[in-house]
Amino acid sequence: xxxxxxxxxxxxxxxxxxxxxxxxxxxxxxxxxxxxxxxxxxxxxxxxxxxxxxxxxxxxxxxxxxxxxxxxxxxxxxxxxxxxxxxxxxxxxxxxxxxxxxxxxxxxxxxxxxxxxxxxxxxxxxxxxxxxxxxxxxxxxxxxxxxxxxxxxxxxxxxxxxxxxxxxxxxxxxxxxxxxxxxxxxxxxxxxxxxxxxxxxxxxxxxxxxxxxxxxxxxxxxxxxxxxxxxxxxxxxxxxxxxxxxxxxxxxxxxxxxxxxxxxxxxxxxxxxxxxxxxxxxxxxxxxxxxxxxxxxxxxxxxxxxxxxxxxxxxxxxx
Length: 319
Known about the structure:
Shape: elongated
Structural class: alpha/beta
Number of helices: 12
């Protein structure tokens, strides 16, 4: 962690703290609180919550009181408060009341008392305001509170659908979708890592998106759901070539191959031919709206309609 700076005795503290108190630059505060320096600068510029001490050279520095106030803003936003309202509340708290206010705000863990609609609204506001830390706090809180299946169906998928609709209607820029998507992927991967080291010596599970399909988030969500169930898997990502999947399947003989397709796939499509030709011990499971809906053409492949049903199907197949 970056080192704080000690205030010289000749420099009075604007917040009334004792001369000689420790002060921090923006990078140190960002590292300490786990939020980005750009977010801290945004809060200072837009809402007036920021450093109050100035060095003899004119550089602004955070005192401990400033950090407590910023932490309160962070906690209130994580509970779903709009940033301007969170800043207004934090600014109204006297310095000697900040610790009590922080304790009260911290009782709730990132939106634990919010319903799904409120969390979705908060995610969209945060992405629109270019505040990825806020998006991450809300998504991470939903994952911890509701688990992968609950957070995906109740918060993540609806939020992404809403953002897509508002982008189509011209109310949001494409950058908002990218911010939200990148943060959600990061939170899902963090949730998977938090599951700890998984046993990879059991049944082999392979997850991929069909070639030319750019979507990999469903795979990352499925990886998190399987990790929650104690299952490790190989995630091959987006646009995985059909020939490579056929070769890997022949060599590895996995228990499960899951392939996602959001774009329409015809029955003469190479990936369709590969997955429907798979034979035991491999079971192919297809996800996404792109696959043909002909039950008699699936061979050994079955189509899964939701994250929860896919996790349940895989869990039952691997015993």
